[in-house]
Amino acid sequence: MSKLDALIVGVPKAGTTWLANVLSQNPKIILSEPKEPNVIASHKGTFGRDTMNPDWSKYDDYFNGRGFRIDASIHTFSCPLSPSRLHSKFPNIKLILCLREPVSRAVSHWKMITDTEEDVRNGADWSDFSTAWLDNRLSDDSYYGKSMQRWLEYFSLDQFLIIDSQRMKYEPEKVLTEIDKFLKIKPYSYQTQSSKHANSALSRRPITTIGKSIRIFFSLVPQIIKNPIVRVLQKKDIDIYRAPIISKRAGIVSVEPEHYSICADSVNSDLKKFESLTKFDTTHWSKLLLINHD
Q1: Residue 140 falls inside a structural domain
Q2: Contact 113, 46 (CB under 8 A)
Q3: pLDDT tens readout for residues 261-288
């Protein structure tokens, strides 16, 4: 393993897909391919768990070319094993932490999983939000204080750039300038169309039976053949899974007071811990929790 310069460390449904794609415009930056190689963390996506030590010898395979290397494996933040693993290899790494108001994050994450039936494929039933919240594979990603406490045992606070995902929506140019400065790389003129390359509910489409068959077929294709094809499609902004015969339009779910009532108390307590550890202002989130909970 050569080097890793930065990690978009988390969390799911906080604008990281958009951010990774925009940063990839910079020819000096090399983003991991795929966006989330999930080598460092024992958390392999929402449901996968593997406590075996990382195979560092294969990590280079996820980076194509030379430049400032960034891994965007967002489940790394909530993984208890990640801080010590990362520190053993890259103690001076820069960490970009994208966060979102934790209840709306959880609801969006839950909706994505049920839309795509990932829960069913992994032997879980998340059809009801209150049941899903009791599964730590959903809720742990919203406990920012709990995770941050582990990370600060190995890394200093000045190694983190903490970003509220709402800022990426309303002031993307300012956020990207801050990131370039934090990473100590030359400022770049990014194209910041907020709707493009975002893993939002509007862009997400639950897969059909035909689509499932196609996905199984492509999963059997060797990576050495598949990767060049995928890169060409990405550059042309073509997603074959958006074809009507392969997928269907997803429904939109709004965050309701009932969602807050399920998890507001524990989340609010955790936010106080996060703010105490980082001095990152979470007042706007806490007020939202209080209003909806009441």
Answers
A1: yes
A2: yes
A3: 999 889 999 999 999 999 999 999 988 8
Q: With CA atoms as reference, report the closest residue to 72 among 94, 50, 91.
A: 94
Q: What is the CATH number of the domain that holds 43?
A: 3.40.50.300
Task: Note whether residue 93 is domain-resident.
Answer: yes
- Which residue in 72, 84, 54, 80 sits closest to 7, CA to CA? 72
In a domain, 80, yes or no: yes
Residue 156 within any structural domain of the chain: yes
Helix (H, G, I), strand (E, B) or coil at 48: strand
CB-hemisphere CA count at 13 Å for 246?
Answer: 11
Q: Quickly tell me which residue has 């077929």 as its tokens.
A: 217
What is the count of structural domains for the chain? 1
pLDDT at 151: 98
- Amino acid letter for position 6: A
User: Is the pLDDT at 239 greater than 70, yes or no?
Assistant: no
Tell me which residue range forms the domain holding 255. 6-204+250-293
| Chain segment 189-224, per-residue pLDDT in tens | 999 874 455 555 545 566 667 767 777 777 777 877
Two tokens, residue 211: 């689509």
